[in-house]
Specification:
Layout (H helix, E strand, L loop, with lengths): L1 E15 L3 E8 L3 E7 L19 E7 L4 E8 L9 H16 L7 H16 L4 H14 L25 E5 L3 E5 L8 E2 H8 L9 H15 L6 H9 L1
Length: about 240
């Protein structure tokens, strides 16, 4: 198979043999793929300075086995530089895609969500908005849309609409269940649940709750494991 000039992002790069690299790419048209970039780490490499994360690139490759071979790479202009806190946020997004996106399974909505998140990280005063938006989109792309609007089956208020003034515990599978407590890591406000359901990230007091809920759901998808980048983000955000 030969592919010419399809857009994508480099998620991760690691050394391979003497001067080459293996790169994990998230492409718009082919999903997540692995490519060998021959001679990429040599001083005379034609891709030196081009193989950058967090910017859209146009990839060409040939593929006969599980790993393809990079044959062409061009940079698209207009992509921001991430640094400081936003750099670690970008690494977190990349790690999520590496661990949770399906190999060679394209999802254009998720691809667009990732590109939007990169731009938002560079432009927004509070990077948490970009992270929460992307986490929710990723869960939906995995077929794991969160039940946020109705109270869970089996409870006293089964099927009732979530009330903004009430408080809930939350199970990622069955949804919210009303509780009497108003504080605690496992307690979420109805106001936050409704805001998350409508993709409203403007209320800063809801963001810590959104983070707890979304990362609980993501942790389930990750088999209970924590990402290395999450540990760093806890110190920064």
């Amino acid at each position: 198979m030969r592919v010419s000039e399809t857009p994508g992002f480099i998620l991760h790069s690691r050394p391979f043999r003497e001067s080459s690299s293996i790169i994990d790419v998230y492409s718009r048209d082919y999903g997540r793929i692995g490519l060998v970039a021959r001679g990429a780490r040599s001083a005379k490499s034609r891709w030196r300075g081009v193989m950058q994360p967090f910017r859209q690139l146009d990839f060409s490759w040939s593929k006969r086995s599980s790993l393809g071979t990079l044959t062409g790479l061009d940079i698209d202009i207009g992509w921001p530089e991430l640094s400081g806190k936003t750099l670690y946020c970008g690494l977190y997004l990349n790690e999520l895609l590496i661990r949770l996106s399906r190999s060679e399974d394209p999802d254009e909505s998720l691809y667009q969500a990732y590109g939007r998140a990169i731009h938002e990280l560079s432009a927004l005063t509070d990077p948490r908005l970009a992270l929460r938006r992307f986490e929710k989109q990723l869960l939906e792309s995995l077929g794991f849309a969160l039940p946020l609007l109705s109270e869970a089956a089996g409870g006293k208020y089964e099927g009732n609409a979530v009330d903004a003034a009430s408080f809930y515990t939350f199970d990622p599978h069955s949804g919210p269940s009303r509780c009497q407590r108003t504080t605690g890591r496992e307690v979420f406000s109805g106001e936050m649940l409704l805001a998350l359901a409508s993709n409203d990230y403007a209320n800063p007091k809801c963001l810590p709750q959104m983070r707890r809920l979304l990362q609980t759901a993501l942790k389930f998808q990750l088999g209970g494991r924590e990402l290395a980048s999450q540990k760093m983000l806890r110190k920064l955000l």
